[in-house]
Amino acid sequence: MKLAQIDRVTTISKEDFLKNYFKPQKPLIIERFIEDWPAFEKWNLDYMKEVAGDKEVPLYDDRPVDYKDGFNEPHAKMKMADYIELLKKEPTRYRIFLWNILKEVPQLQQDFTYPDFGLKLMKGLPMLFFGGEDSYTFMHYDIDLANIFHFHFHGKKQVILFDQKQNDYLYKIPHSLITREDINFADPDYEKWPALKKAEGYIGNLEHGQVLYMPEGYWHYMRYLTPGFSMSLRAIARNPKNLGKALYNILVMRHFDNVMRRWKGQDWIDQKNEKAITKTHAKLGIS
């Protein structure tokens, strides 16, 4: 893979952001943008334990997709207080994924504001993501192909990004939003996954208080270098082609995949995994 460092700025105006990053759909890390938020001082693991410790949270790990699992179905559940103690005690693969602040702990909304990036942010969908040391997400893109602003808190996280033009090289699973789950994007095996050598993307690290802008439909792999958590705010895709893809994913693809899982079971998952290899290598003339 050819990975360029994600552009970094200390801060940025709305006009410069729209001109230099949103319009060309280029990722960006903003290092000092939310220091006036109460969350900048308050949000750490201990604070989350204090305000949400009694909440039961859905947990996900890095096990391969199983046909019996529903779309985004959690692998386990735990009280937030117990989960945070686990994060602090030892490395764990368990992550919290798409945890809605407004629904679960409304008081957290008092700790941040919706910044003006020149895009209309969806105020009903502030989502939190937690992870333990060395836990990671599979390479994926979001079902709605939104513009995403990812605010990181407590610790460090590494991100690897690709745009949709790289699909031919990433071993994308048909009828899904992920690549082959057995690819280690932190240290890829190019003998096993030769197409990855042609993929061109971005890499960068996030620390407390920093903001990552991910353009529409960007693939992202995220690995927690230390225990920590992040919040994502999103704005609807502006590109008509991406809007069409989002509607297809939500209204057709997701339901078709669930029907096929129920009908064919694990054979459907295995078939898709094999097609990810054969289709990728066929396009590149790799035998």
Low-pLDDT parts are none
The CATH class name reads Mainly Beta
Structural class: alpha+beta
How far do the termini sit from each other?
A: 20 Å
| Strand arrangement in the largest pleated sheet | 2-3-11-8-13-7-6
Q: How many distinct beta strands?
A: 13
**What average pLDDT do the residues reach?**
91
SS summary, helix count: 7
- Tell me roughly what share of residues is in helical segments: 25-40%
Kindly describe this structure.
With 287 residues, the chain is α+β, with helices and mostly antiparallel strands. The protein has a single domain (2-284), classed as Jelly Rolls. Helix content is 28%, strand content 23%. It contains 7 helices and 13 strands. It has helices at residues 14-22, 38-42, 45-52, 80-89, 101-104, 240-264, 266-284; strands at 2-5, 7-9, 28-30, 56-59, 76-79, 95-100, 127-131, 147-153, 157-162, 200-206, 211-214, 219-224, 228-235. The chain has a 7-stranded mixed sheet with strand order 2-3-11-8-13-7-6. A 4-stranded mixed sheet has the order 1-10-9-12, with no helix packed on it. Helix 1 links the parallel strand 2 (7-9) and strand 3 (28-30). Helix 3 (45-52) runs antiparallel to helix 4 and helix 6 (240-264) packs across helix 7 (266-284). The longest helix is centred in the last third of the chain and has 25 residues, at 240-264. The protein is globular and about 55 Å long. The relative contact order is 0.20.
